[in-house]
């Protein structure tokens, strides 16, 4: 701990230091993401301490890789231990750390803007990534896309606060009308609902995807085989899978374990967080309330059904059924809703 922390501080001094720390963290985070903070730097008159702010870019059990922005687009990485009370840290977390040789130590976690969570083996929801701005749900003509699965990912995305993006990969296969027709039919409901749709393949048309990923931190989620790893490798050759591991305490040399997740910087700008756990995000348990609120076009009708416990199946006076009949809600989305609720009831 720096000597400064041992001094007895008045409440006002402690409050001021807290404010300065928060401002420093905000500036560090914004400049790390390539945004230039505006206004004079109110922390400039404060003497530097050994503590720095950074972002967790990889996680290896009790060790993490923490990256700091050293200015001019340069970044520096430091391997750190986690303090024992900081076991819930994930890739994307912004932290305060003390650099050291061969390893530094993470001393504090800064507040998260968003959090991706999924149930662990015991059903308890655990964070798997933090501070994600955008969730790119990847689909493809093959494996066959299912509206209820896409909607499930969109519902899960809605809960996190990150903005959703639909990425249609393998568009080279759309030359086959038997693959194109059902996909286009399924997709047409999403742009009017405000979900952006991008079409690409690993062979061509990546510029639009690069644009959508610029200046933010994203994750790719979606069914196995839609091409998430291939897209990551097309955007950043050699990025996945990453095979560095924990450093041994004594020698500081690498051992061979696969990292559980990693944050990648894209050459075109923006960052991607990837891990097997993140790819399965959205397939965990959802509550009935989360499912209802995850269908954004349902919002004006929720609470307006005749029966308070309406399940929106065939009940008289159901506001959602009436909205479907009036063409205000796509029938495909109500069908998805029922499918997802049916899977909750069955589990
Ligand atoms: N035709 C075509 N094939 C593609 C494209 N992108 C990926 N593929 C193929 O699709 C298959 C699955 O790709 P992956 O990148 O492993 O899919 P994934 O979504 O990462 O799968 P998981 O790791 O299981 O989640 C591979 O055989 C890829 O070569 C594309 O744009 N066009
Ligand atoms: Zn109803």
TrEMBL record:
**An individual GO BP term:** ribosomal small subunit biogenesis
* Molecular function GO terms recorded: GTP binding; GTPase activity; metal ion binding; rRNA binding
Q: Which cofactor does it need?
A: Zn(2+)
* EC number(s) recorded for this UniProt protein: 3.6.1.-
Protein residues bound to GTP:
169-172, 222-230
What does the function comment of this entry state?
A: One of several proteins that assist in the late maturation steps of the functional core of the 30S ribosomal subunit. Helps release RbfA from mature subunits. May play a role in the assembly of ribosomal proteins into the subunit. Circularly permuted GTPase that catalyzes slow GTP hydrolysis, GTPase activity is stimulated by the 30S ribosomal subunit.
This protein's name: Small ribosomal subunit biogenesis GTPase RsgA
Q: Which organism is it from?
A: Chromatocurvus halotolerans
The top of its lineage is: Bacteria, Pseudomonadati, Pseudomonadota, Gammaproteobacteria, Cellvibrionales
């Amino acid at each position: 701990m720096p000597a400064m922390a041992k001094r007895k501080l008045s409440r006002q001094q402690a409050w001021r230091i807290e404010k300065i720390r928060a401002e420093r963290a905000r500036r560090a985070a914004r400049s790390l993401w390539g945004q230039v903070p505006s206004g004079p730097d109110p922390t400039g008159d404060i003497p530097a301490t050994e503590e720095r702010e950074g972002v967790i870019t990889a996680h290896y059990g009790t060790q993490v890789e923490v990256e700091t922005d050293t200015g001019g687009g340069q970044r520096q990485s430091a391997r750190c231990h986690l303090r024992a009370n900081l076991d819930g840290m994930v890739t994307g977390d912004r932290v305060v750390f003390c650099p050291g040789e061969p390893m530094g130590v993470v001393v504090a976690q800064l507040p998260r803007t968003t959090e991706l969570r999924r149930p662990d083996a015991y059903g308890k929801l655990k964070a798997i990534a933090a501070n994600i701005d955008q969730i790119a749900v990847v689909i493809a003509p093959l494996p066959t896309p299912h509206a209820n699965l896409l909607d499930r990912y969109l519902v899960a995305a809605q809960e996190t606060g990150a903005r959703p993006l639909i990425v249609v990969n393998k568009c080279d296969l759309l030359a086959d009308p038997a693959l194109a027709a059902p996909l286009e039919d399924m997709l047409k409901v999403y742009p009017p609902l405000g979900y952006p749709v991008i079409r690409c393949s690993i062979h061509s048309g990546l510029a639009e995807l690069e644009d959508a990923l610029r200046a933010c931190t994203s994750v790719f989620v979606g069914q196995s085989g839609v091409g998430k790893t291939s897209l990551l490798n097309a955007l950043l050759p050699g990025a996945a899978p990453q095979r560095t591991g924990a450093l041994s305490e004594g020698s500081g040399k690498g051992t061979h374990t696969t990292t559980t997740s990693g944050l990648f910087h894209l050459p075109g700008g923006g960052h991607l967080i990837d891990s097997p756990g993140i790819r399965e995000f959205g397939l965990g348990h959802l509550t009935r309330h989360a499912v209802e609120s995850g269908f954004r076009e349902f919002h004006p009708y929720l609470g307006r059904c005749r029966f308070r416990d309406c399940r929106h199946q065939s009940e008289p006076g159901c506001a959602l059924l009436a909205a479907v009949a009036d063409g205000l809600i796509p029938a495909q989305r109500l069908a998805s809703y029922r499918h997802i609720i049916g899977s909750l009831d069955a589990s």
